[in-house]
Amino acid sequence: MSSPGVVWVRRQWNDDRDGKYRLAEVAGWHLSTESGGINQNAPRPFIHAYVQCDKMIQGELAHSGAHGPCPHRIKVCVTKKMNKEFWKEIQSALATEQVKRKNTG
Ligand SMILES: [Zn+2]
Q1: Which of 17, 18, 19, 99 has its CA 20 to 30 A from that of 54?
Q2: C-beta of residue 79 within 8 angstroms of C-beta of residue 91
Q3: CA of 24 to the centre of ligand 1 (A)
Q4: What is the predicted pLDDT for the residue at 70?
């Protein structure tokens, strides 16, 4: 059974628009200081991941469709402040992804 967890994501760590996704719809978890879209640098590493722009279940993301016709994959930032409820699940998703990457080189 898939996790019922949800995660709030934003395009950049300091963006004020957030979109809500099911944890199962989020992939490619990693730590990065580089955000999607305009590639602004964050002051410290934040958790980033990838979502499909049309899979949002609630909220709003800064997203122009400038990378091509929707739907497409966008890089998003995941902050702890917005995600206290499922932070453990998010950290375990990140850890799983890191192990996977280490094993495949
Ligand atoms: Zn799109």
Answers
A1: 99
A2: no
A3: 19
A4: 86
